[in-house]
Amino acid sequence: MPQVRVRFAPSPTGVLHLGGARTALFNYLFARHTGGQFLLRIEDTDKERSTEAFTQAILEDMAWMGMRSDEEPVVQSSRLSAHREALQQLIDSGKVYKCYCTPEEREAARQKAEAEKTSYQYDRRCLGKPEQPGVPFVWRFQMPTEGETVVDDLVQGRVVTPNSELEDLVIARQDGSPLYNFVVVIDDAFMGITHVVRGKDHLSNTPKQVQIYRALGYPEPVFAHLPLILGLSKRLRSAGLGAYRDAGYLPSAVSNYIARLGWSHGDQEIFTEEELIEKFDLADVNRAEGALNLDKMAWLNQQHIQMTPPEQLAALLVPFLQKAGFPEMSLDHPRLLPAVATMRARASTLVEMAENCRFYFVDDDALEIDEAAKGKHLTQEACAHLRALADALASTTEDWTEAGIETAVRQFIAAQNLQLKHIAQPCRVALVGAPKGPGLYETMAVLGPASSVARLRLACSHHNP
RNA sequence: GGCCCCGUCGUCUAGCGGUUAGGACACUGGCCUUUCACGCCAGCGACACGGGUUCGAGUCCCGUCGGGGUCACCA
Fold first, then answer.
1. What is the three-class DSSP state of A147?
2. Percentage of chain A lying above the pLDDT 70 cut
3. What pLDDT score does A34 carry?
4. What is the DSSP code string of A82-100?
5. Which pLDDT value is given to residue A114?
6. Which domains does chain A possess?
7. For site-directed labelling of A291, which of A147, A228, A345, A465 has its Cα 20 to 30 A away?
8. Which nucleotides of strand B come closer than 7 angstroms to any CB of the protein?
């Protein structure tokens, strides 16, 4: 089997959303899995809508996802002379003809067909017409009218289209510029694409393109049309990848999620990026379209957060902490790494984790305490215990480790004839400002003796001893 | 409307003629526990419908219904 060469061919008319990202990902995974090449082509020939800014944004999003092109991206607009050459080849071989119909004429015919509830197809009225010098024209490709075109699609199976359904399509505008269904064939052939893996919205274009491959004498690639993603329309769903990055999603989780949407490997839900490459196969791609489930994506993100080593997670979290009110935050902040370690199982996004970590980084006297929690847990009696605990801890700071703190606390409880449940929540509220959070001993270990003792005392200052 | 594709729990899916139709998210209950999570256990919940073929159909065929795509001098 010749080496696999696939491409992702976005048009820079918008950002990369989940659907496009999945098409790119399946191409990428297929290439990596087979040891082939993954290429990129920027389809920027729609000059009205294409922008350089979108091109850059798409490249950035793909880099974030870890997908890089194995060769310099091909820019479609730079290939105009090749397109013209191919057009000339078809003119020379008589496979195209000039069509002098005006857009208004076609529109009228189309509307008439619609009014009569019949289907419109160009009627070839210009085929064989004599030359009309000076009159503007477009080039139409002459499709076969007999027989059928068969596409053995790797995902969709055998798709048979009667050639009578194929319209003589326009392949070059009045100004001579070539159209999509024509250039895509030329460029894929030029790039040596062996497998065209794209969205199912291109399925009905495929037989037309196959005819153009044949007319040009190019080898036909294998096609694989991926099911579309349903309901990709509002808010986060329609957003570009950048929105997911900003919302605190890990690229590995996004890859995992969109890969599993339409593809599966038995019952496995969680895949590392390496596993995706190892296990991905176009044969396992579903034909039915699927809908986004943001809850499941959040769950997967949490799973990936838990799988990520704390060092790596800390680095990812820094920008989110900076945005969460700690502009000076850096990777060498002494509390960062241990804080992340305590929070790994407690956040489904980096935004949430940054928010939950705030209490670790605020000044002791700036810690805000939840009012409800204060009323419930920081009672006069509890505060008396906390003050005593603070005193006890202040004198036992030599072994300030999780184990050492636990020993000290348990000794205090025994000496005071208390139970842990009497002081645990008051203590947590004093340290964290809320009735939830990591284990008490690990929390104090991260805060250190000075902050821990200070917070216990500060939290009780509303009750005079 | 023509043509094409699709149809298993609410959602993502396993299944490839014989299964108590399995897993995951969400939801409910329980366990663990200093809280919240994590984790573990249990529950809820599906083969769109109708005909065939077959000893036997979620699996094969046809029809109906439903969903999607496409019918540009866009890509």
1. coil
2. 98
3. 97
4. HHHHHHHHHHHTT-EEEE-
5. 74
6. 5-72+228-297 (3.40.50.620), 76-180 (3.90.800.10), 308-361 (1.10.8), 364-459 (1.10.10.350)
7. A345
8. 1-8, 10-15, 22-26, 34-39, 67-75
| Distance, Å, A3 CA → B55 C1' | 49
Q: Using an 8 Å Cβ cutoff, are A10 and A44 in contact?
A: no
Which residue from A194, A186, A144 is spatially nearest to A167, judged by alpha carbons?
A: A144
Active site (annotated) includes residue A234: yes
Contacts of A330 (CB under 8 A, 6+ apart): A318
In A200-358, the DSSP E strands lie at: 222-226, 229-230, 290-291
Q: Beta-carbon neighbour count of residue A150 at 10 Å?
A: 12
Write the single-letter amino acid at A219: P
Give the residue ranges of chain A where pLDDT is below 70. Answer: 1, 233-235, 397, 464-465
Tokens of A61: 């999003």
ipTM of the complex: 0.95
pTM of the model: 0.95
Question: What are A229's strand-pairing partners?
Answer: A290
d(CA A112, CA A160) in angstroms, rounded, equals 29
Alpha-carbon torsion, ordered A13, A292, A296, A26, to 10 deg: -60
Neighbours of A173 (CB within 10 A): 13
Length A288 CA → B49 C1' (Å): 19
Q: Token pair of A35, please? A: 């040891």
Cα A238 vs. chain centroid, distance in angstroms? Answer: 11
